Amino acid sequence: MTTRIAAMTQLETSASAIGDRLRVIDDYQTHHRLREATGRKRAEDLNERVLLWSLGQTAVILILGVAQVFLLRSFFTDKRSAY
Length: 83
Prior knowledge:
The protein is mostly helical. The chain has one domain. Helix content is 89%, strand content 0%. It contains 1 helix and no strands. The mean pLDDT is 91. Belongs to the EMP24/GP25L family. InterPro entries: Emp24-like (IPR015720), GOLD_dom (IPR009038). It is found in: Membrane. This is GOLD domain-containing protein. It is a single-pass type I membrane protein.
């Protein structure tokens, strides 16, 4: 009878140790999920800022290109005076 009590105690001890380890693993997972969510939010914000900056740069390049075309055209237009 004492061996069975000792076996149950050993079984209970193992179950308790497994439960403790599972709680530690759960804490690690929660911690890493929070860090992943924070990093993901930061990456998405950075991606949005890069997109807006790129759109702004594209608009500037297009505007400057159109302005250069009009400026070059003005050099070659026939400007006759009306006298």
